[in-house]
Amino acid sequence: MKTRFARAATSRLALLATLLLSNAASAVPPAPFVSPAQWMSALGQQVLAPRYAELARSAATLAERIEVSCRAPDDATLESARGVWRQTALELRVLSALPLGPALETRILRRLDFWPTRPAQIESSLRGKADGTLPEARIGVTAKGLPALEYLLFDPDRVRLDADPAACAYATWLAREIASELDAIQPAWSAWIDNLNEADAATEAQLLGDGVNILIGGLDTLRQKYLEKPARKPADKSAFDAWRSAQERAHLLAFFNGLRLGLQGADVPNNDEQNNQDLNKHALNDTARLEGKALPGLSAIMRGRGLLELAARLDTQTAAVSAALQALPSSPAADGGAAIARATEALAALQGLLAREAADRLKVAVGFGENDGD
Amino acid sequence: MATDLLRRRLIAALSSGGLLAAYPMLAHAARRAPDANAHALLTCWNDSPTRPASFRAGRLDTPSSALELPARGHDIAWHPAADGSAVVAARRPGSFLVRWHVASGTELARFETDDESRFEGHLAFRPDGRVLYATETDLISGDGRVGVFDALSLKRLDAWPCGGIGPHAVKWMADGRLAVANGGILTLPETGRVKRNLDRMDPSLSFIDPQSGRLLTQHRLPDAFMSVRHIAQTRAGHIAVSLQNEGEVGRPLFALLDGERLRYGEADADLVEHCGGYAGDIAAIDDAFAVSCTRAGVTAMWSSAGLPGPVLPTPKVCAITSFQGRLRATGGGGDIWDVAVNAAASAGGLAATLIKHEQLPVALDNHACSAEFPAS
Predict the structure, then answer these.
(1) How close A9 gets to chain B, by Cα (Å)?
(2) Given CB atoms, is A29 within the 8 Å cutoff of chain B?
(3) Confidence at residue B32, expressed as pLDDT on a 0 to 100 scale
(4) Listing from the earlier edge strand, what are the strands of the sheet with B288-293?
(5) Among B122, B189, B307, B350, which lies 20 to 30 A Cα-Cα from A223?
(6) Where exactly are the structural domains of chain A?
(7) Domains and CATH numbers, chain B
(8) Which residues of A fall within a CB distance of 8 Å from B187?
(9) Which chain B residues in 254-283 lie under 8 Å from chain A, judged by CB atoms?
């Protein structure tokens, strides 16, 4: 209890200091101090725990729909299963941008989201499972997960799922495995959120470091893995995430929406809010966030520490990335890669802002530099 | 654009002899003895020590044919087939291995990782040139591995556990074993190079059967906070490692394999302090070892018995290789140092003299080898 009181007093002092400094420096009302534990706790309570639970339900529904499609094969039942896959995969894609807490510790995203798919391995696994030569325990991550299910449900060169009993059984098992894995980590979310209430100074520093690095890593993944690498061969659409289900652009936007929840929280500002009046408005929004249990992002942490101008630039560059991604064709390289080039440029600028200026001001060691160590 | 600029700067510096000498006496030495092999190194380089944006691999003396890389390269070696090709591994956590024809800059083969694994920076060839080994990490389990590849096509053949996490250097030993430096530091792809287990590190030097992948022996230092990073072996067979200190207490950055145990090289408090906490490379020359203490900016030497030798000022030094009977070291500031080593010169039995220093307008990466395919 003493610790909690002491922490509350420290937070109040920090808030007071922020108030005084902000007033003196910019003559705008101060933003409330948001601790890294508050940031993570809000993300855990409002985004991660409920959305992982939702994802588990979607995966269970997917298993049911695949089973129905296999039992009563026709266009309607197959399309129903495909529709649930689309929804489930989009839910996963948002969450895959925020591998925090139990998601980081359990490596669950690595097991659910192996990509690019390895069709030959999936085929040999499903045949081996069907003829009993390959025990389930020996089927590796590289033949599992939602992308493997996308291959079985959508691949244009493969026999229809509902016409292949072995593939049907395998797909149903995969979907159940996913639901089961997701069910298993549900209790870890509440335990993680509870522990955040007890965070000491060292834990707070680690939470901030992990949070900032994970956002930088997410921007790096979006830029390099999902855009630059596939764009090297613009004519080959198979290098893009979710190409089989024609969800490439939707997946890119979903991933960025996940990042945006971490960067800005739930209250995304307008593009043009850059002057003092707008900074003032952000500060009020941040107060409302805390009082009304709204979702703060990294930008709220920055404002709470007096980094108003930097937070505004973060908002502006985030909006620029959003606009660039929105402008992508549904098949992202359909224009020869020009829109991808604009998006990667905007992403690189946002990543640079976070990795250099924000990390420096927040005293976070960045794990994605090109100029350190071996 | 940055690439063109980088290439032009390097070509201009080489063609005009426009090299900056940091030490007047060395500049004088350089003027006295022009060296046709001044830049005869196979290495990687980039355009900036602080914000690199353009990355190359190739011979420093023929930069116009260098291979463009998507990110910093790290370990680099001539292919044992002696066909003019070499292989470069991405700096950890890395995504590529590339084999290319060095003189023409033509890419011959490439392996890129996916969500299953990532490279950890180093490679080694089986002497017959048919198999290549590269350190890597299983991204799902976090375990360290030795990836096994066809040395010509770079197609994956296998992956073996290497007995630890965070492997870095891998080296073929004279007795036909494969040595792996298990750094013992856990990093995750989600958080990049952030070290996540400094309170429970388990570094080691492992030896693996290169035919079966079986772990043969494993050797540890008394301090778990000393990360084992790089490996060297003298012609007489002595094996040593260079280290990275993740603790609060100073320790030598050099250790010898002494029977079954790793033991630190001898170093008094001054030497420990002088070398700092991070060694970037190690090389054997004659019966001695040289360790590049990158952050401290010195190159320190030990005899194969573990006795301390000379310490040379070499700011930002990292790559060290033996070259025409000398040590040649390079640094992130573009420096190239040539060092003459005499193993029987003085009472201490080991002497080294800095005989040449030059500086190129690029940031040289961490490892290098002779520009010519080494004669056996």
Answers:
(1) 30
(2) no
(3) 39
(4) B281-285, B288-293, B298-303, B308-313
(5) B122
(6) 2-362
(7) 1-54+223-244+262-376 (no CATH), 70-220 (2.130.10.10)
(8) 367
(9) 278, 280
